[in-house]
C-alpha cells in the first residue's frame, strides 16, 4: 500500500510537469544550430520565400543578386502582384519579380531600377550581386510602400552615431542606411558598427533583413489604434455645431457667432449640471447665468439653450430650430459669441447639450 501511495504521488507530480521539447534539428546542414541567422533563414524557408541550393544546403554566405532580392521581397510582401506578372515563353525567370517590385515602388534609388530603360531591364545588373547600399535602399522603399512611417530627423541623427563608417556612405544612400539603423532593421557587420555598404549582400543577411522588415510591418499593423482624445472629440462637436448655428443665422442675415473658449467651459459645466437637474436653474437653485459670473464672463445680454437625449449635433439643432424660443436665441442678431457644451452619462437621457450665448 505504501508503494502504491508513492507511485500515485509521483504520478500526480508528473501530471503538472511540462518537459522541454527536444531541440529541433537544423533544416540546412550548413546552417547549424546557433548560426547567427538560423532562425531567420529557417523562417523564410518555411514561408517559401527562399529555398535551399540542394543537398540540404542553404549556402548562407553566397551573394544575392538584385533579381533574387526582387523575388524575395515580392514573395513576402506582394505575392498577388507577383502572381499577376506571368513570365512569357522564353523570358527570364526573374522578370515577373522585377516588374512586380518596380510597380510596387520597392526599387527606388537602386542600381536595379537605374538599369531599367525603355521597358527593358539590364540583365547584367539584375544578375549581379546586390550591394548592401542597394539592400538598404530597397528595404526603405519597401517600408514606404507598405505605409510604414520612417524615423524622424532626430531619430536619424541619433542613428548616425551607430554607423562607424557613416562618413563614407554616399549621400544618395545616407537616408536609407540611417533609417534602417534607426528602425533596427540593419546592424553593422562588426562590433564597431561598420555598415560596409559596398560589400555584397549574402543569403544569410537577406533572410535576416526580410525577417526584420516583416516584424516592422507586422508590428505596425498590430499596434492598436490610439484611443480617441475626448477633448478632440468635444472640439469637433463644438465646431460642427458652430457651423450649423452660423448656417442658420446666415439665412436670416444675422452676423456669424464666434466660438468663445471660456464660454465653452461655462457651457460644459452647465451640460454636466443639466444631467443632474434638467433646468435653466442650477443645482444650487441659482440662475443659469450665474455660471457666467463664475467664469468672469462680461456680457450685454445672454441666453441659454439646453436639450437632452439627441445623439448628434444635427438632431439637437433640428430640435432647437423647431422650438420658437430656442430658435430665437440661435438667430438673435444682438448676440456675438457662443459657448457649446456636451455631456454624456449612462444615466437619464444620456446626451446633454447646452448653448450659451452672450451679446
From TrEMBL:
Keywords carried by this UniProt record: Repeat, Signal
Pfam family, one: SLH
Record CDD domains: CAP_bacterial
UniProt signal peptide: 1-23
InterPro entries given in the database record: CAP_dom, CAP_sf, SLH_dom
UniProt domain SLH: residue ranges: 24-87, 160-224
Top-level division of the source organism's lineage: Bacteria
Record's protein name: S-layer homology domain-containing protein
Amino acid at each position: 500500500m505504501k508503494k502504491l501511495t508513492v507511485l500515485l504521488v509521483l504520478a500526480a507530480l508528473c501530471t503538472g510537469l511540462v518537459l522541454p521539447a527536444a531541440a529541433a534539428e537544423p533544416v540546412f546542414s550548413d546552417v547549424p544550430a546557433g548560426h547567427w541567422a538560423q532562425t531567420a533563414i529557417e523562417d523564410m524557408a518555411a514561408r517559401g520565400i527562399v529555398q535551399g541550393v540542394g543537398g540540404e544546403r542553404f549556402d548562407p554566405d553566397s551573394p544575392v543578386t538584385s533579381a533574387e532580392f526582387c523575388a524575395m521581397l515580392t514573395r513576402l510582401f506582394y505575392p498577388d502582384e507577383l502572381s499577376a506578372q506571368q513570365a512569357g515563353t522564353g523570358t527570364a525567370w526573374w522578370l515577373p519579380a522585377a516588374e512586380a517590385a518596380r510597380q510596387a515602388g520597392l526599387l527606388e534609388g537602386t542600381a536595379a531600377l537605374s538599369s531599367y530603360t525603355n521597358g527593358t531591364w539590364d540583365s547584367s545588373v539584375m544578375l549581379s550581386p546586390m550591394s548592401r547600399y542597394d539592400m538598404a535602399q530597397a528595404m526603405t522603399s519597401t517600408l514606404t510602400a507598405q505605409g510604414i512611417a520612417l524615423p524622424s530627423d532626430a531619430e536619424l541623427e541619433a542613428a548616425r552615431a551607430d554607423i562607424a563608417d557613416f562618413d563614407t556612405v554616399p549621400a544618395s544612400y545616407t537616408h536609407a542606411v540611417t533609417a534602417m539603423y534607426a528602425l533596427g532593421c540593419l546592424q553593422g557587420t562588426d562590433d564597431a558598427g561598420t555598415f560596409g555598404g559596398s560589400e555584397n549582400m549574402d543569403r544569410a543577411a537577406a533572410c535576416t533583413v526580410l525577417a526584420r522588415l516583416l516584424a516592422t510591418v507586422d508590428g505596425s499593423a498590430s499596434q492598436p489604434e490610439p484611443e480617441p482624445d475626448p477633448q478632440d472629440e468635444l472640439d469637433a462637436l463644438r465646431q460642427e455645431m458652430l457651423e450649423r448655428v452660423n448656417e442658420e443665422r446666415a439665412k436670416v442675415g444675422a452676423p456669424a457667432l464666434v466660438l468663445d473658449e471660456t464660454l465653452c467651459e461655462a457651457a460644459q459645466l452647465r451640460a454636466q449640471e443639466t444631467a443632474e437637474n434638467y433646468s435653466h436653474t442650477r443645482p444650487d437653485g441659482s440662475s443659469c447665468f450665474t455660471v457666467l459670473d463664475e467664469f468672469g464672463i462680461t456680457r450685454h445680454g445672454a441666453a441659454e439653450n439646453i436639450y437632452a437625449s439627441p445623439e448628434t449635433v444635427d438632431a439637437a439643432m433640428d430640435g432647437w430650430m423647431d422650438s420658437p424660443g430656442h430658435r430665437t436665441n440661435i438667430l438673435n442678431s444682438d448676440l456675438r459669441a457662443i459657448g457649446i457644451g456636451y455631456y454624456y452619462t449612462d444615466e437619464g437621457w444620456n446626451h446633454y447639450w447646452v448653448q450659451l450665448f452672450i451679446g
